[in-house]
Amino acid sequence: MRILAIDPGSTSTKIGVYQDGLTTKGGIEHPRPEIGCFASVMDQFDYRMQVVRQYLEQEGFGACGFDAVVGRGGLVRPVPGGIYLVNDALVRDLRDAVSGEHAANLGGVLALGFAELHGVPAFVVDPPVIDEMWPLARFSGLKGIERKSMFHALNQKAVARDVAQEIGRGYDEVNLIVVHMGSGITAGAHRKGRVVDVNNGLNGDGPFSPERSGGLPVIGVLQLIEEGIHTPDELKAIVARRGGLFSYLGSPDLREVERMAAQGNLKARLAVDAMIYQVAKEIGALAAALDGEVDGIVLTGGVAYSASLVEQLTRKVRFIAPLYLRPGEHEIEALLAAALRVMNGEEQAKEYTGGAA
Ligand SMILES: Nc1ncnc2c1ncn2[C@@H]1O[C@H](COP(=O)(O)OP(=O)(O)OP(=O)(O)O)[C@@H](O)[C@H]1O
Ligand SMILES: CCCC(=O)O
């Protein structure tokens, strides 16, 4: 059995190949000026196909066939968690960016591109739009504005399953708070296998992160528009890509910001402390959402590699539940494991129909 996994991120493409029990995994970085030449995410299709081809050749898989191809899910319409066959409806919604532009939208399209070359099925797994929120979590506080589920679903679910296993129980038997801390930060309340509440980092919700603003005071945002400082479109981009640490310090790279802090830059120290403070508050809020019945708090994403940040955060939230560390992302492994479950007949791939947005 040989399976190809493709995980496109905003400045990298991660690739994995499963072959008879062994996984080969790698990533190709795309310099910002190079990837910045494309007007839209979908315009990068040929470029990313070529990148994946080059990787496969370099790793000795150039002449190989595949039994299935699996890609990261994108911002399609809200769906329950699971594995989805890439079909026409899914490809159309990815191309139309029905729930927003994101590099992840290329995942299903690239998977299909390679699957068609080999005459095999293509899948996507746990797209960021999976929606398992309970009704209370949908209230924003204003009629007409509903909180939406959009988060690092693939990685959150993968590490949650892994931690449940470490605890010795099934994912659907535990309550976990999973905090993915990457360029964006999303924190989810996983209640017995369902993510019943989670912040949508891309939309200005939750803690600030290296790149995202998180929740902002609404009147302050309106003033920026009224005073002509930013247009609504500029603000949408700032909230998702140029907020958080980037806006305070000019860099979204926590390693660089920590270096600045270590060299005595007090602004950098305070901004990192504030990010930790906001993440801790989010964890506390989710603990209350789960009635305090929390089996574990899981920290994952690139930011969780920072030992000092993890130590500070642990001191603030360890009164809630034990902490489990899963730094980095585990998406390629999760994609390959999911495709393997389908190919082995242990799980059935769902049909994406593209219900209401
Ligand atoms: N060893 C480390 N120490 C401190 N920070 C780190 C370390 N490694 C990565 N980071 C930080 O993690 C952040 C990026 O995380 P990650 O690679 O998970 O994000 P991404 O894939 O770009 O975005 P996302 O996870 O939101 O999809 C950056 O701010 C980076 O500086
Ligand atoms: C994947 C959606 C969440 C984020 O990037 O902040």
Describe the model:
- GO terms for molecular function: acetate kinase activity; ATP binding; butyrate kinase activity.
- It is found in: Cytoplasm.
- It catalyses: butanoate + ATP = butanoyl phosphate + ADP.
- The protein is of the alpha/beta class and 357 residues long.
- It folds into 2 domains: 149 residues, Nucleotidyltransferase, domain 5 (2-Layer Sandwich); 187 residues, 2-Layer Sandwich (Nucleotidyltransferase, domain 5).
- It contains 12 helices and 14 strands.
- The strands form 3 sheets. The chain has a 7-stranded mixed β-sheet with strand order 3-2-1-4-6-5-14, with helices on both faces. A 5-stranded mixed β-sheet has the order 11-10-9-12-13, sandwiched between helices. The chain has a two-stranded antiparallel ribbon with strand order 7-8.
- The longest helix has 24 residues.
- It is globular, with a radius of gyration of 20 Å.
- The chain starts with a strand and ends in a 6-residue tail after the last strand.
- The site of butanoic acid (BUA) has 9 residues, from loops.
Q: What's the helix count?
A: 12
- Indicate the percent of residues in helices: 25-40%
Give the domain tally.
2
* Strand line-up in the sheet with most strands: 3-2-1-4-6-5-14
Global shape:
globular
The mean pLDDT is: 95
- CATH homologous superfamily heading of the largest domain: ATPase, nucleotide binding domain
CATH domain class of the largest domain: Alpha Beta
Give the beta-strand count: 14
**CATH A-level architecture of the largest domain:** 2-Layer Sandwich
Rounded to the nearest angstrom, the radius of gyration is 20 Å
CATH topology call of the largest domain:
Nucleotidyltransferase, domain 5
The arrangement of helices and strands along the chain is EEEHHEEHHEEEHEEEHHHHHEHEHE
The share of residues in extended strands comes to 15-25%
Spatial separation of the terminal alpha carbons? 36 Å
GO molecular function: acetate kinase activity; ATP binding; butyrate kinase activity
Enzyme class: transferase
Family: Belongs to the acetokinase family.
Protein name: Probable butyrate kinase
